[in-house]
Design goal:
The chain is of the alpha+beta class. Helix content is about 50%, strand content about 10%. Strands 3, 4, 5, 6, 7, 8, 9 and 10 form an eight-stranded mixed sheet that branches. It is globular.
């Protein structure tokens, strides 16, 4: 996992933690878009359910019959999950990890012995060789217990060195590094910088090819998860001559690699996240991944599958939340009856339960599509990440609300009073980062919106925003008009009413709704494109509503088809699953209706205008009379005394690197 923000940086700061970093690249909006577009995967060679959904084509055949997880999760995996559960239950002290901000070395060693750092690494390279569904199921179990362990394992193999190495590495690179990684050599992914969050065009870390065929790396990376304990990392850097971005395998004990700081956050206290600098680091030519200038492409493809860990982890947290509220709301009596029987609390319990079912359907389905093969899941993965993190955050907040003061109280404090140390407040702190990890929710929505309208841009984009002359545009107009003359009426005339999908029985109406809503969404996006043209890209609130409609429709389809799969299998939980799917879809249909209403009736212009006034200082009067958040000067800052040497707290070190310190 990696932290990433959704801004473009302030463009002025050139140092972090006292080390000088190359100044951020200053680029125009057009150049930033050009860099992002160049890194996109432009072809859609494989099936894609979500893209078709946005185009008004409800391809139920792509996800139904919903794949049977038992066909993809083997007995070896189930035995491993049992071992992992026992390990988490009996050996992991999550409160200690959170309190001491460190995963104890014996826990990391135990994970190594269990092969947990090689879950997805092929067996021929020393790993366990689990597929995506198996890996997701394992991380979901870990996510139900400890966010710090999730960060360690996921940053290592979801987006760390093993994933891009499997996808793009040469056989020599795989033989050299994968066995080490499977044995527990921790890895990380280094892309984000002080002024680079979601805008890669501003990348300032540089690489220069030498006459001997190797490279010289300089720069600094921020928020590198596992960076303070990693042995091997992937680094993204810009070539000084071409300006293109490449990816390199870098070993942390090479001369010139320095851990500047270990960083601490609101939650996941045991995360080993740091600032890493590179001073004239010599990188062998054979450590280039893929090809020169293909680094962003590598990063995006890696993230397509890598970000699937987060939706699975959200499922584990959701399941834990269901257990917590079920037990507490049954035992806690107020006003003569259990609190779970009071309607206000009952509604929260229902919301937590039905949405956990939906989150599991979404996360499981996308993982199964990866394992089945033949799908382009870039949109499915992004929607799974967006939907599960946004919904999951609400569910965790509701869980704390159900527990009341005991939800807000820390587990050690609860234990000191003789109560069950149920760490809901830690669950909330740990979960919050999921809306930012591996692409913030805002960036996910922008990514999905861009891909959702890709067909339109390929067809008519040059007419709207291209540099073509009037004559060239007129020459292309007939083909565009003819295509839309066929496409547009089909989004009005499709059949989405009874008796279609009758085989789904009481759930059929929800699929008919998805069919109709999909075509309405396609029409609505088309209408907005016609109205705003190239300016639609700046109507982010409008596009985000469209994305959220697509996410709700995908979750509805996944929930219904999953319930049908359980029925088909004769699963004992099938009848209850159908009830949960029905309730979720009823709630989702109301949300979709509200989102469609907001596409036509909203205060977006007024809200944007107000924000501009705030930025221009028009409402500084509102800030009068406060002190605001502040921190007294710390050691090492201007105006502060330096502490005695023994007061500095070493928080980790690496062979060949300076020990990270808390400053």
């Amino acid at each position: 996992m990696s932290l990433s923000d959704s801004d473009t940086g302030n463009g002025d700061r050139a140092s972090t933690g006292g080390t000088v970093q190359p100044k951020a690249t200053h680029v125009s909006e057009a150049e930033a878009r050009r860099v992002a577009e160049a890194a996109r995967e432009t072809e859609w060679a494989d099936a894609t359910f979500v893209r078709d959904l946005f185009l008004g084509s409800f391809r139920l055949d792509l996800i139904h019959p919903y794949p049977d997880p038992d066909e993809y999760i083997g007995e070896r995996t189930r035995a491993y999950i049992d071992e992992m559960r026992e390990f988490l239950r009996t050996e992991v002290d999550s409160e200690r990890i959170d309190r001491e901000r460190q995963i104890p070395p014996h826990i990391v060693d135990r994970l190594r012995k269990m092969g947990a750092f090689g879950l997805k690494i092929p067996r021929e390279y020393g790993g366990l060789g689990f597929n995506q569904s198996e890996y997701s199921r394992i991380l979901s179990v870990v996510g139900s217990v400890d966010g710090s362990l999730v960060a360690l394992l996921s940053a290592h193999q979801s987006i760390g060195v093993p994933q891009p190495l499997k996808l793009f590495g040469t056989e020599e690179q795989k033989k050299k590094y994968l066995p080490r990684l499977a044995a527990g050599a921790i890895s990380a992914f280094a892309l984000t910088e002080d002024d680079v969050g979601s805008d890669p065009a501003r990348l300032a870390t540089t690489v220069e090819r030498t006459e001997h065929g190797d490279y010289i790396l300089n720069g600094e990376k921020l928020w590198c998860t596992n960076g303070t304990v990693a042995e091997i990392i992937v680094v993204m850097a810009r070539h000084t001559d071409t300006g293109k971005i490449s990816a390199f395998i870098v070993e942390m004990d090479w001369p010139g690699v320095e851990i500047v700081h270990r960083l601490h956050f609101m939650g996941i206290g045991g995360i080993e996240n740091g600032v890493i600098s590179f001073h004239d680091v010599r990188v062998p030519g054979e450590n280039l991944l893929l090809k020169e200038g293909r680094g962003l492409k590598l990063a995006l493809v890696t993230l397509n599958t890598g970000r699937l860990t987060i939706p699975a982890v959200c499922v584990g947290t959701g399941k834990a939340a269901v257990k917590i509220v079920r037990e507490w709301a049954s035992e806690r009596v107020q006003w003569g009856q259990p609190v779970g029987k009071h309607e206000a609390v009952a509604h929260m319990i229902s919301d937590i339960t039905v949405n956990t079912f939906a989150m599991e359907a979404v996360a499981e389905l996308v993982a199964l599509l990866v394992d089945r093969g033949g799908y382009d899941i870039r949109l499915e993965a992004a929607i799974a990440k967006l939907f599960n993190t946004e919904v999951g955050w609400r569910l965790v907040d509701e869980t704390l609300q159900v527990r009341g003061g005991r939800g807000y109280e820390r587990a050690d404090s609860l234990a000191s009073r003789g109560e069950a140390p149920i760490a809901v407040e830690r669950m909330l702190r740990d979960f919050r980062i999921n809306r930012i990890f591996e692409g913030s929710s805002e960036i996910m929505r922008l990514f999905i919106a861009r891909e959702a309208v890709d067909w339109h841009l390929q067809l008519a984009g040059e007419l709207v925003e291209g540099d073509l002359s009037l004559g060239q545009k007129l020459a292309r107009l007939p083909r565009v008009a003819l295509t839309y003359a066929v496409w547009y009426p089909s989004k009005w005339l499709g059949w989405g009413w009874w008796p279609r999908y009758a085989e789904f029985q009481e759930l059929a109406g929800h699929l008919r709704f998805v069919n109709r809503a999909s075509r309405k969404l396609a029409r609505t996006l088309f209408h907005k494109m016609m109205r705003y043209g190239a300016g639609l890209q700046r109507k982010q609130a409008l596009l985000f509503r469209g994305v959220d409609i697509g996410a709700e429709l995908f979750a509805m389809a996944a929930s219904v088809t999953r319930a049908e799969m359980l029925t088909r299998k004769g699963d004992p939980s099938a009848a209850q699953a159908r009830k949960l799917a029905d309730v979720f879809c009823r709630m989702a249909r109301r949300r979709v209706g509200q989102l469609f209403h907001g596409m036509a009736h909203n205060d977006d212009v007024l809200l944007y205008r107000t924000a501009r006034e705030v930025l221009d200082g028009d409402h500084e009067w509102l800030e009068e009379g406060i002190v605001g958040l502040q921190v007294l000067a710390q050691p090492g800052q201007a105006g502060a005394e330096e502490p005695a040497e023994e007061a500095l707290e070493p928080v980790g070190s690496h062979t060949g690197s300076s020990p990270a310190e808390v400053g």
